[in-house]
Amino acid sequence: MKRLFGLVCALCALTAIQARQRQNFDADWRFMLADSAVMSSPDYRDGHWRRLNLPHDWAIEGDFLVSNPSGASGGALPGGIGWYRKKFEVRGLKDDKLYIEFDGVYMNSIVYVNGQKVGCRPYGYSSFEYDITPYVHEGDNVVAVRVDNSDQPNSRWYSGCGIYRHVWLTKTHPIHVKHWGVYVHDGKVEVDYENPTKQKVKVKNIWLDADGKPTSIKKPRKWSCEDPYIYKVRTQLIAGGKVVDEVETTTGFRDFRFDAKTGFWLNGKNMKLNGVCEHHDFGCLGAALHEDALHRKLVKLKAMGVNAIRSSHNPPAPELLNMCDTMGLIVMDESFDMWRRRKTQNDYARFFDEWHERDLTDLVLRDRNHPSILMWSIGNEVLEQWSSAEADTLSLEQANLILNAGHDASTLAKEGEMSVNTLLADHLSDIVRRYDTTRPITAGCNEPSPNNHLFRGKAIDVVGFNYHHEWIKDVPHNFPGRPFIMTESVSALQTNGFYRMPSDSIFKAPKEWWLPYTDPTYMCSAYDNMHASWSSTHEQTWDVVKHTPYVGGQFIWTGFDYIGEPTPYSYPARSSYFGIIDLAGQPKDVYYMYQSEWTSLPVLHLFPHWNWLDGQQIDMWCYYSQADEVELFINGKSQGIRRKADSHQYHVMWRVTFESGEVKAVARKEGKVVGEQVIKTAGQPDHIQLSVDYQGRDLTFVQAVVVDKDGNRCPWAENELFFEPSDAQVIATDNGCQTSMERFTSPQRKAFFGRCIAVVRGKGNITARAIGLKAASLSLQ
Ligand code: GAL
User: Fold this and answer.
1) Residue 539 designated active-site
2) Segment 234-270, tens digit of pLDDT
3) Catalytic residue (choose from 381, 384, 447, 565)
């Protein structure tokens, strides 16, 4: 079906504002995973192509294969070249302008309109817009997009493939606000607009409160994590007595600063950034943007006490920033994972010289009005932190070319004042500061010494370490007077539901970063006792951050597990172990440690499960808050009372001998019982329990648990569950297991430690069946 753009415009023409019409352009595309030059042609017959709505990620539909060139790091899922085509109708355009806008295409996209090339964009995370006015005509038009993710590997994590974010079509009056042309800061509004007609244009800005009512901003209500109050600015261009263009920009007011002695301050309040790093994928849904999946992520993180997100290591979807604005989550907006020196064979380094200025500029222009963003990051662990043969052989012409900002690299480098790498860092910061000076710049640095080339110039406002928590004590000495945060931390390794004892032994996997690590289980321990060689347990880093006033906060690697980078393993492991929440969205135990430290909720979380061999020695851990002590009972017999010794202790532990029955934790405050948790030994798997894990507008995340006849989760159950919807559609399933080779789009999934989830679109009923178990049904609202 064709989109009737003209019709839509005709209807809207009845309103006072005539010119700007922005419509979502996601519906009714055709897709083919193949490549031929003729596919750009308007006459090409695409009737046999698959019909779909964007956003779309073709890689998530594939099989995990060791031979997929993305490798286990990229999720062992396919790449390739794909084409998207869409017909649309244009009517009555006259002098108006038509723009197509892509929020993100991974990667190397080339856009054609009616067979003519409109533009290309290598970086898969940038948003971009094309003026397609010269390419369209009255009547039928065709847009075709070639997406090339065939040169692999090009990412250290799963990227996804395709037009994985929204697409928009915008019609404007010839006099109109430029793309990202409004900049609101310090209560002022700057407007950049086009006026090819040379008519007199008046710019009017109207402040609106959160309810959309005109308001004054003399004493604005502040934006904070607890009260994320947003304002909007309605910008109108008036020519010939008419409003010819109108755009609305979300903004907010907040005071913040990073202090070298006292850390981070927001609106006069000293607080820690309790942040997590997030990649852009949505587990079994892949990279394709789903507002529901994104919201579910943020809701779960916020409930854990997270107040900050780092968009690692690339520009995020605009929707993430919108949600962070309204949910009160602070954002570190990050540009690149590499500069000129590559990390994988075919990554963005090959485009950096030509594209970095454009990509970084666009990031800042697109995002600078969001109240949630409080920091820019110009890069993550870029190899330019260190000197290298490659950097040394960079010719001065090349250096000047890439710096391109009036620096004379030869004088500076010769005088030994600065290295080329420092100049490059400064150059990137200059680009950022050209468009926004209201936020500090940082970078994720895993070279913590002041010799790091990035720290030597003027690029970095807030010194950011990745890992190296042991170096934090030297920060005031190494970086006198400079504020400090942990841009990335922890990298603990956990499989949800798997426990390696003794729990008080710390397992490093691998022992050194360059050593291989093998373990036949392909699992990592969900006690907080396993981490990578460069990293720490959750408790270790949090203890330093919590007790060191000059640390502004941390961004833990990571909130959610993500596809790819299955450190410490390789294939068949294909997704990460780093998350505090597993890939299916189920919290791991350590989630409750943070909740006990970061929220005002009373927490009592006892683990692991209570299904072991008789006589086995088991370590029972408990996270708790708002209580003085916890007593453990096994079948009614006390195993002792535990109290956290001081503010450096985060869990209590009992080493006990298993006997079937029940284990119970009783929390007391001032002698009164304030909480109780019982875990029973589960009997044979008997039936399935279904519940709603998250209800979105479009998607429902259904949690399935295999239980015994009394409803206790069977922690060792691996039954294969078949999800059968009526009227609805199961679009993906997952169980959080890092080595599962089942397709994410499959409607069946094995239980992993007794659980899995199904993602369902639509209403109706969903039934889950399994051989030997009683089925369960749930009606979807
Ligand atoms: C960091 C890196 C992240 C991720 C992490 C795993 O060095 O910035 O992208 O790879 O290690 O521990």
Assistant:
1) no
2) 999 999 999 999 999 999 999 999 999 999 999 999 9
3) 381
